[in-house]
Structures are given as structure tokens and as C-alpha cells.
Hints:
The structure holds two protein chains of two kinds.
Chain A: E1 9-13, H1 25-39, E2 43-47, E3 63-65, H2 71-81, E4 85-87, H3 92-104, H4 107-110, E5 114-115, H5 120-127, H6 129-138, E6 146-149, H7 152-162, E7 166-170, E8 180-182, H8 185-198, E9 204-208, E10 214-222, E11 228-236, E12 249-251, H9 258-275, E13 280-288, E14 295-301, H10 306-315, H11 319-327, E15 354-360, E16 381-387, H12 390-400, H13 414-422, H14 428-437, H15 442-449, H16 453-470, H17 479-488, H18 492-499, H19 503-512, E17 518-521, E18 535-539, E19 553-557, H20 568-583, E20 587-592, E21 607-610, H21 615-625, E22 629-631, H22 637-648, H23 658-665, H24 667-676, E23 684-687, H25 690-700, E24 704-708, E25 718-720, H26 723-736, E26 742-746, E27 752-760, E28 765-776, E29 786-788, H27 795-811, E30 816-825, E31 828-835, H28 842-849, H29 853-861, E32 880-886, E33 907-913, H30 916-926, E34 936-941, H31 948-959, E35 963-966, H32 968-976, E36 982-983, H33 995-1000, E37 1004-1010, H34 1013-1030, E38 1034-1035, H35 1038-1052, H36 1061-1064
Parallel strand pairs in A: 1-2, 1-4, 2-3, 4-5, 18-21, 19-20, 19-22, 20-21, 34-35, 34-37, 35-36, 37-38
Antiparallel strand pairs in A: 6-9, 7-8, 7-9, 10-11, 10-13, 11-12, 12-15, 13-14, 15-16, 17-18, 23-26, 24-25, 24-26, 27-28, 27-30, 28-29, 29-32, 30-31, 32-33
Helix pairs in contact in A: 1-11, 5-6, 6-9, 7-8, 13-14, 14-16, 15-16, 16-17, 18-19, 20-29, 23-24, 25-26, 30-35, 31-35
Chain B: E1 2-7, E2 12-19, E3 23-31, H1 37-41, E4 49-53, E5 57-58, E6 77-79, E7 82-83, H2 96-102, E8 106-109, H3 113-123, E9 126-131, H4 137-146, H5 156-159, E10 165-167, H6 172-177, E11 186-192, H7 197-205, E12 208-214, H8 219-224, E13 229-232, H9 243-252, E14 258-261, H10 263-271, E15 276-292, E16 298-309, E17 319-325, E18 331-336, E19 341-344, H11 359-372
Parallel strand pairs in B: 3-4, 4-6, 5-7, 6-8, 11-12, 11-13, 13-14, 14-19
Antiparallel strand pairs in B: 1-2, 1-9, 2-8, 3-9, 10-12, 15-16, 15-17, 17-18, 18-19
The complex binds adenosine-5'-diphosphate (ADP) (2 copies) and magnesium ion (2 copies).
One adenosine-5'-diphosphate binds near residues 215, 242, 244, 299 and 375 of chain A.
Amino acid sequence: MAKRTDIKKILIVGSGPIVIGQACEFDYSGTQACKALKSEGYQVILVNSNPATIMTDPEIADRTYVEPLTAEYLEAIIARERPDALLPTVGGQTALNLSVELAESGVLEKYGVELIGASLRAIKIAEDRLWFKDACARVGLECPRSQLVNNLKDARVFADKVGYPAVVRPSFTLGGTGGGIAFNPEEFDEITSRGLDLSPVHEVLVEEAVLGWKEFELEVMRDLADNVVVICSIENFDPMGVHTGDSITVAPAQTLTDKEYQRMRDWAQRIIREVGVDTGGSNIQFAVNPETGRMLVIEMNPRVSRSSALASKATGFPIAKIAAKLAVGFTLDEIPNDITRKTPASFEPTIDYVVVKIPKWQFEKFPGADRTLGTEMRSVGEVMAIGRTFQEALLKGMRSLETGKRFSMPRLPEDVLRRLLTVPTSERLNALFAALRQGMSQEEICRTTAIDPWFIRQMADIVALEQKLAAHTPETVPADLLREAKRTGFSDEHLAGLWNVEEAVVRQRRLALGYEAVFKRVDTCAAEFESFTPYLYSTYEDEDEAEPTDRKKIMILGSGPNRIGQGIEFDYCCCHASFALKEAGYETLMVNCNPETVSTDYDTSDRLYFEPLTLEDVLEIVDLEKPEGVIVQFGGQTPLKLAKALGEAGVPMWGTSVDSIDIAEDRERFAELVKKHEVLVPAHGSATTEEGALEAARRIGYPVVVRPSYVLGGRAMAIVYDEDSLREYMGYAVEAAPDHPILIDRFLEDAIELDVDAVSDGEDVVIAGVMQHIEEAGIHSGDSTAVIPPYIITQRDQDRIRRRTIQLAKALGVIGLINVQYAIYGGELYVLEVNPRASRTVPYVSKATGVPFARIAAKVMAGHSLRSLGITGEPRVEGYFVKAPVFPFNKFPLEDTVLGPEMKSTGEVMGSSPNFGEAYAKALLGAGVRLPLGGTAFISVNDNDKRPLVVSLARDLAALGFRLIATEGTREFLMRNGVEVGLVFKVHERERPNIVDRMINREVTLVINTPLGRSAFYDDTYIRRTALHLGIPCITTLSAATACVEGIRAIREGVSTIAALQEQHPVRV
Amino acid sequence: MEAILALEDGRIFKGKGYGAQTERGGEVVFNTSITGYQEIFTDPSYAGQIVCLTYPHIGNVGANLDDNEAGRPYIEALVVRDFSELASNWRAGETAEEFLRRHGIPVISDIDTRALVRHLRTHGAQRSILSTVSTDTEALVAKARALPPMVGLDLAKTVTVAKPYEWLEPSVELAREGKAPGAPRFRVVAYDFGIKQNILRRLVDVGCHVTVVPALTSAENVLAMKPDGVFLSNGPGDPEPCGYAVEAVRKLAGRVPIFGICLGHQIIGLALGGRTYKLKFGHHGANHPVKNLLTGKVEITAQNHGFAVDPDSLNPREVELTHQNLNDNTLEGLRHRSLPLFSVQYHPEASPGPHDSQYLFHQFAKLMQEFHN
Ligand SMILES: Nc1ncnc2c1ncn2[C@@H]1O[C@H](COP(=O)(O)OP(=O)(O)O)[C@@H](O)[C@H]1O
Ligand SMILES: Nc1ncnc2c1ncn2[C@@H]1O[C@H](COP(=O)(O)OP(=O)(O)O)[C@@H](O)[C@H]1O
Ligand SMILES: [Mg+2]
Ligand SMILES: [Mg+2]
């Protein structure tokens, strides 16, 4: 069989913004798919609302639409582009659902677009839990007993039959949103009702729970000739009941005999054939009873997934790339294996190492949320580690997580420990080690956790070795024992902790004994064939296969696991640095430990080191490769934290000096700088004690912004209005960063905030973009909606901002990127923060301007001047580009949705248009907020907001035909100003119907609610929570509300523009 | 316990010893299968070989009564990166170490097995000694050099049964799913050159009544049993010295349907006038892509062989090449254009390995059926 020639133009749908359950793994797979299809000569049309992706770089596809991922927009794009085919399987659940929608509504047929990869029927069978079970039954495979219901009553009847615990799973939601395990009837009612609401088809599946069974996954591929191969088997360390996305997972499976594994493989083949996924990758999950071996099929994802990204990284087999080629008619045996070159892709990778994936959670950002792990995914990111043994991979994975925690844990009381073991939470891994250290028996641990004894034994052996090592000092430790420790995966830091010495002491001793890491290759074939792709991991073995070249090389440190505040944007920058430096003639070395990313695609850099981003691990690579420079500027806080120590170790650092970075981060040094250059900053102080803080705040004046130093994403940052709140804050924040003081700033209330990105070569500074936030200062820049160019800032202020940015870049001797945050307050320009490094906004600015600033910055670091790169001035921006954040509140149902200085969003989208209102509305739509075109707007604003702006807002809404209702105070204020408004009761006013009733009755189409101050938060959180729950747009700032009005107006006027990036920036592309 | 693996070219690996306290010699080869170590231990084709398993954790699921391919392990010794002292699987009856110790087989673990594999990949399979009793490396290398080379070695003769016996058991999978095969429809005589029991089980599954006979059984004696088909098994060593079997096949060809696997395939190749040769480091694993040249489909196959049939040595007018290895294009299967005879180099019975090629057993049944009619 061969490539199809009857199709020429292929539409690929991306996965949109990063959300929990759908992260940058789809940038990785989408980018691979686009590249693969383009290289085969197809014209690729890409739609993805997420500007922070590599896949939306203009050179990846032929036409790139950064437009909302909705059926309307896709139809418009299809009508405009007339593609021959749609590949629905590389953009996660989002793309799959949209493709189904387009197919079912007849759009695909109307425009003659063929679904390739998976047919509508196959997608539906795989996605509809009941159809899927039927399909399994048809080929003789067993699934848990279950029933699909569309109301609570039927659900109860079935649950009573199968008994509790029971699993509730909403149909067609992402990452299991809205599902859960109910242990009793009360819980069951709650989860079922929520699930019914969240399911787009108002349907849930109630299922017999098989908690504690072993959970496995197989990554399967099929081609049009019906060849089926298994790429990777994955065993979940956490048994059934914890979502695979929240489980520690291990590849390959460790506790299956060949008979059992082959049976699973046979089942997988039968399933993929029966479901009828024509080509591409699928993920199939199984549960196995540890006592009897009875096996059940849990689910299938007929598309590439988070697990397939992991499997690709774990084996070196690029599933998405191959899947794309299979979709256009190639068969597996026609595609070469990139790594061995001589062998075909029609084989099953075999590995001679162990891969461990550990999720990263951020419950600390959502204090109200329940930390229990269940059937719904909660983690925001993950790390992968490769080791020659499970122990080594596990320990490498743990240090990749950057939890900041030491390996040792305080002794825990028996009951606390037992609870931590029984109820799975983000703390369970640490608790397991604690239990072993405290002498709990392995049998008992297995009994309480249902984790396989083999894993527990491995961990017990680590603890036993730890105890043996602890009896020594760096001087007395026998060489063999130290070797064993390193071979087991102990880091120098871990050993230093055991011996209570500096890490450097351990390192010295280790090197004196000649124990250095060696590097082995990921080669898909366990060394049976020669490998041509330097995809490497470290281990402590005899033979090193790194074979460093003698080319000029540069090392780029990645950004580690995704987390809120440090995500795909930084990976985007790292990839660009790599592309740019390759162009500039360097060999590029990428170091990263995040399996979801494009940066850890072995195609991205010349050499990939899949390693933890710790000082030790980085130094081992530096010692081997001896790069000309190391770049820490692009990976966010993770590499920056290493900068100082790397510099001290004599590693050549490129770009802005470590010292300048320190000036920007260190409050005192920064204060000196601003003083010297007469830069206005908010009044500020710092304190290490509660008294000190109170005193500083008194001097500065309330309200104040408080935060621990050296944090990213505004972690533990708060706005404090009075002394009591400050006392309360000091109580928990000091714990957040014990070694660092608390910083206190005057809170510039109601100020306009702006972000500026610029690039400097040491001589010239060029502004990349000025972004105006829609929300006022006080809402973290990562959480606010922003627009390029600024839309209500005077030219004079803009000029001041540009001059100030240039001045700061020069003062800090920036080589590369710089980001400055400003607030305009009382007519003055304040600097809130200076980051002499790549910021979160770089990809957005690049997409808005069409200039790849990260690439330019990398070249500048390599010594090119901006002028020589043709970058002489700030790019002119045509039209408006609005960035909007996306929040994970639906995953944390107890959490208030109000925004503040601590970042909570997981991702972003961009909307663009010649018209600001439309750009804004499109950005919101991309972020999942569909502005109403009419109906009833509910307004409830705080006292500060009871000012003319709210009046004009209300008038505008009324003019657009909205009926207005408001709570008492707001209503009074508006009526006084001549606006006709109806009254609505708050819940505590005890009159019915109250606002919640009205929302539930779907009377309200828009909520404008601005809370202020701490106490107010608690008052009306229920309003926002109800809005979230019911999917009613809820706006929490007046400025955003004003922008909404413009958006609504634009949509109502029927302006509807779509444009490809390649059209928006024709010259630069 | 310390252990040493000494290669004939002088390369030494030092590690931890497990299993029996002893010294064993053989050709060291590597197998890349992730699962199925017990089946590998007990595959008689490994007679005369020390096996290095490339997957680092071996022993995790212990050993059980169902997963044996023969009455005892046949590997000379085992080389691994990590050997599990704990058996974690509901079917496990003992640990892998207990199993090997019971059968006198030594293990070396904690060595850089990947370095060994790369060494073998570059320098080819090597004679070597694994010792858990001596640390005299020079002496061990000398002993390795004194071992007989694999080329020219007839090991089939040493592992075959002494007396014929009947085999009645179906495969484990079928037994578990409760589907018993129907009454036997074919009488099959299986030559035992080191036969894996899963071949016998698969034959039973497709309706065969199997009589296993010693390697040296003459064609006349086989024909006297009036079989519907003859099966030629896998086995260890070089096919060339097995002249007796080649002779028997020549006499049987055309008179009764024949199916050969692995060594059986090589013997058929020789009987058809072809030539066999030794591969550099052989094929040992469960992930080899084989293309069925008749259907164009790719099968993922289990393989375990150090020798291969040279396709150019076969007469294309008589012999049709049916299967090809996609990794290195070596010959994986053939059939005679006019006589009822076919064979494959790989292991359709799997165990360990994927079940993609089970159809070959049905094909054998069909061939017997057609021949009968
Ligand atoms: N019947 C069940 N009993 C116990 N746990 C279950 C059951 N079904 C699913 N789970 C758990 O819930 C997780 C999510 O379920 P899954 O069907 O894979 O949904 P998703 O589409 O969200 O991945 C699984 O990984 C598994 O751990
Ligand atoms: N003095 C201040 N007055 C008003 N808002 C502030 C002030 N300082 C910080 N903020 C708000 O807090 C957000 C986060 O602060 P920032 O210093 O940028 O932290 P991070 O390092 O996490 O980006 C800013 O985007 C801004 O909205
Ligand atoms: Mg799942
Ligand atoms: Mg900031």
C-alpha cells in the first residue's frame, strides 16, 4: 500500500488551551503530525486556539488558524480552505469531540471532507462507554458491569444492585471531569448529579468498582493493512481507582508473565479491530485482579493521548508522527524507524531500562480543594525518568519533580501515616517511604495500599540501603557502598542529606572514587541495532555510549514539569532557542524531564538528554559534553535556580549574566538599581517576622501586596487590607518559603497593568510588544486577559513605557529577553517587576507580531547583533490580539473563582480581529466563555466599583437589549444614576427566588460580580461557583465587563473575521 | 556471592551471583524479550548457550508450573542486570532463583548487560564461562576458549527424547477460557530436536494427536506409523551435522505433509538442497517483524536462532520463499511449490512472544486435510 494521492489538503485540529488532563502532549503530537504530513507533500491546515504552542508556529503548517475551537469557527475555516480530509486524532479529546460534532451535523459531508485515521463510527464506539462495552462483549472480552443512566433515580437502582463503592463516569468529558467513586449512597447522589450536569449529553455510566486491582495500559498502533503492534506496556504503580494521569506509572509492565501479557495484547488487537480504528495509535486500559488474574477492559482512547506521548518518549517510537503517516495510507513496514534507520516501524519496541512517570499536583494553589486522588485527573504536569532499574528511575523522577522537599520526612504518627497510605493523595509516595523508614512491614503496606509487592520491595530496598549509608560519613563510606548507592539512583543531594554535609562534599568524594554517570541510548531495540539518534539518559554503569562530538555546542536547560505559572510557554522558548542555534551552526543539547513536551522530542535538538534538572545531573552532562555555553534564560524558574551554582562551578553561561538575574530577583539589590535610575516602584519593605511585617505595612500604608521572595506564578501571594489579615497571612506564608523574607508592597488599587517584552543585544534594545491587561493590577499577569496593542493607553504613557523598558534592559546589561511589568496609577508609571529572561508572554507576542522573538534572543546570545538579524524596531501590529486565560476551577469544585495575585490558570488562548471587541469575544470563546447576545445580566459590584464606569456599563448592556438585575446596593446606585434595574435577593437574605434560584432557572445569561477585600470573598463565592457550575459567563472586574460589552456588540454586529497567521504576517513569515 | 562472566575474547564481567554455585560454559547470546523469561529458561533450543536477557528486571513474577517449555531449564547460565528475589504474581510457585538453583543453573546479575549486548553485536556471539565459584579470570577465559564452537555442533541429538511418547494437552490459554479442542482429527508425528511444549499444545489445539519421536527416528519408522502429517521441531545447535534428519526429510517429502519450525525449517532447507550459515549474533527476541510475502501482512514474531537458511541456495523453481525478516531481510519461511511441505524460521507457537502467527498451525491442519482428500 502507499500514500494516498487523492487527498491534497488536510485539516488538523489541535487541542486548544492547556487544561488539566490535556496539556502540551498534544503540542508534541500535533507538531509531529503536521511535520510528518507536510514532509509527505500534503498541504496542512491547522486550527488551534493556543498561541503558546510550537504547532502554531507559522512554518509548521501551511495555514495556521489561531481561532476558537468551536464548530462554527471550524466550519468557517473548512468553507474557506476546503480541505480534503480531517485528521481528528492528534488533538486530544477536544479535537475528537469537535470532529464528531462536525461529522454529525453534516458539515464534513457538505464540504466533502473525509475523516482519516478514525471513522465517525470508530470514534463513537470507543467514546461511548456503553457501545464500547458492547463491542468488547461481541469479541468475548469482559468489562466491569455497568449501566448508562440519564437520571438519578435509575442510577440509584443500579448502584444498589452492584453495591458500593461504585464508579460514576460522565459521558464525553475530558480527563474524567465530573466523575468519581462513591463509597456510600449520599456520595453517590452528589457525584451522579454533578456528572449528569457536566456531561454534554447529560449521561453517566454507573459501574461496578474494582478498586485495588492492578491497572495496565497498552499503546497500540494499527495500519490500513490491519497490522497491529503494541508500542509499549505501562503498569500503574497506583492500583485501580486512581486515574492513570494521577498515577505513578512504569514502563514496561513489571508484574506480568508472558502468558498474561500476550493475553492482554490479544485483547488489545481484538478491541482495536472491533472498534474499527483504521489507523494510528490507541490507548487501551485494563484492570487485572491480583489474586486471580481475571482481566477487565476499562477503556480505550482511539487517538494519541498523554500516555502515547509518554510511550513515545519511553521507547523512542514517535507514535503521533507514525500515526499521521498511517492515516494517509502508508503501512508500518513502509516507514523506517528513525533511530535504527535500517529497520522498519513495523515492530514492537523493546527496552532495556525502566521508565517511571510521576505526576505533579498543585493542590496548594487551591486550598479549599479535596486532595484525594480518584477517577478524575487532578495533576497539572508530570516528569518522566529513565533508569536502568526501577529504583534508579523512581529516584530520578522524584528529584525531577522539584518539590523542594528533602528526601527525609519527619516521623509521622501511626494514624496519620495509615491514613496517608489508605487514601491516595499527592503525598502517598512520600508516605510510602516514611512508612518503610518507620518500620512498617511490607506486607502491611501492600495490604493497606493494594500496591504490588514488587514495587514495595523495591522501595524497601532503597530504604534499607539508605539506612546502611546513614551509618557512614563521606569519609568512611566504603567505595562499593557508594557505588551501590549511585547505581541505585541516589543523588549526591540525597546522600548529603543523609550525612548532613554539603552536596559538593559528596560530589568530591564520588569523583575522587571515579564514579561518574555514563550515558546510554534510548534506541527502541535494546541495543540489538546501532542507533543513530542521540537520545540519552544517565546511569551508573560501565560503558558510556554518549559519543560526544567535537562540534561547537550549546546546552539548553528546559523547564521541567508543567505547573501553573511555568508551562508550555517556556518549552516553546526552549525549542525556539534550539532551532535558532542549530541555524546558527551549533550543535544543540536539550536537557529536560517533561515527557509531554516538544523539547523532549528527539527531533527537536541535535542531542536530547532526558534528565532531571538538578545541579548534579546537569553538571554530569556538562562534564561530558563541554558545551561552549549553557542557556538558562528560556526555561523559566527551573534553570534559573541552577544558574548561580552552575556559574560557580565554572560552567560558561550565555546571555544576561547570573548577576543581573540576581539583581532583578533580589529585593535589596533591585531597590538600589531603581534608586540609581530613578525608576518609580510601589513603596515596599520586607520582613521575616510578623511584627516586622506589621510595621512595614504600617509605614507603607494599606492595602499591601505580600508574598514570599523567589516565587513564580505569584505563589502564596495575597492582597491584604488590614492588620488582622496580615497576621493571618504571616501564619501560613512564612512556611511557604522558610529561607526567604516576606516582601511587602503598596497595593496599587485599580491601576492599569501592562506587560512589556523586549530583546536586547547589549547595544540595542528592541521592544517586542506592549500588552495591556484588561483587568486591573492585582490580578496575576498570567491570569489576566491582555491585548496587543494597548487599546486605551495614551501615546505619552506608551512612550514612557518603551523608554523605561529600554533603560532597564541597559541597566541590567540584558543579552536576550527581558520582561517588565508596569502599573499606571494616579498618572504615574510604576514598575512592578523586571524579569531579565524569557517570560510567559513571549509566544503570544511572537504570534501577535509574527516575529519569533525567542529565536532572535537565542541568536543574540550567540553573538549576533539585532541589526544583523534585521530587527531594528518594534513590530507594527495590525488589528488586535487578545490573550485569555483558562482556569481549572471545574476540577476543584470547592474553589472560589475570583482572581488575585496568585496565578491559577493552566493555559491560554488567543483571539484576533481588526476590531477589539471581536478579538476579545473570540479569546473568551476560545477559553470556553460564550458571551450571551441578550437575556438578563446580573450585576453586583463592590463599593469601590460603584462609580460612573458601572453606570455606563449598565447603560450599554441595556442598550444592547439586556434586562438588568442587581443586588440591593448596586441596584440603588444604578437607579440613582438613572438606570432601570430589577432587584434580586442574595441567598442570605432568605427571600425566594434568590439569585441562585434564578441562575438555576437559566434566567441569568451574564454575571458581573466584583468582590473586594477578604471578607467579601466569602459572601458571594456561591454566586460565582453557581455560575461556573452552570456555565454562565461570570466577569469579576469592571474593566473586563466593559470589554465584554464591546465583544457582545461586535458579535451582534455580525463582524466575523477569520485569518491565518500566514495572512496576518505575510512579510515576516 | 560473586560471579564472573568470561568471554573467549578476554572480556570479563564481574557481578553478583545467584542460583547454583557452579561453573557453566556455552555460547553467550542475548534475548530482547521483555516478558517470558521462564519460557526462555526452559526452551531446549538454548542448550549450549548462556543467555543474557536485555530487560533489566528479571524474576519479578517468579516461576510457576504452567510456563515451562520443557521438563527443565536448558540454558547453561543466565546473565541479567537485576534479579528479583521476590516473586510477585498470583501464579508464582517459587522465585526464579529457587527455580534455577534447583536445576543447577548459575546466574550473574548487576552487570552492565547493555555493554555486553553491544559487545556481542559488534564482535558476534562468543563462547564463554559463567562462574559463581571461581574468580580466576584468566583461567575462566582459557576455559571459554576451550569450549567447542557452535558451528558443527549437533546438539539436537543430545536434547531429544529417548523414547516416543504421546502428547494430549491443549494450550494454557485455551484451557483457561474453557474452550477444549474437539476430538483429534490428525495423527501427527513430531520429530523432537529439542521441542518446545507449546508447539505440542498448539498442535493439539488444531486437532492433532501427537506422537513425539526421537531425532534419530528413520523415515521408514515414521511412515510405518501412518501419520497424517510430520512435524519437525525447533532445537539447539548447527543444523548441518544433523544429516540423519535431513536424510529422513528427503524421504518423507511428498509422502506426507510436513511442517517445520526453526531448526526444523533449517533441516528442510538443507533437505531441499539449500545451505545454512551462522548469523553474527542471531535473532533472539519477541519483536521481530516478519512479512508474509503471500499476503503482504506483517507478523510480530518470536525468534530464537543462530543459523539461517540462505535463500539464494534454494532452487526457485521448486521452493517458494514465503516469509522474510524486515529487520535484516533474512529468510523466515518457505514452502515447496508442488509438495505438501512448508516451514518457518521463527516461532509461531510464541511462548514467549506474540500470537500473530498461530495461523500456521491451522495452515498445517488444512494441508493435512487437503492431502487426505
Ligand atoms: N470500575 C472501576 N473501578 C475502579 N476504578 C476505576 C474503574 N473504572 C475506572 N477506574 C479508575 O478511573 C480512572 C479513569 O477511568 P477511565 O475509564 O480511564 O477514564 P478517563 O477517560 O478519564 O481516562 C482509571 O484510570 C481507573 O484508575
Ligand atoms: N504593588 C502592586 N500593586 C498592584 N498590583 C500588584 C503589585 N505587585 C504585584 N501586583 C499584581 O500581582 C501580580 C503578580 O505579581 P508579580 O510581581 O508579577 O509576580 P510573578 O513573579 O509571580 O509574576 C502582577 O501581575 C500584578 O497584577
Ligand atoms: Mg483513562
Ligand atoms: Mg509577573
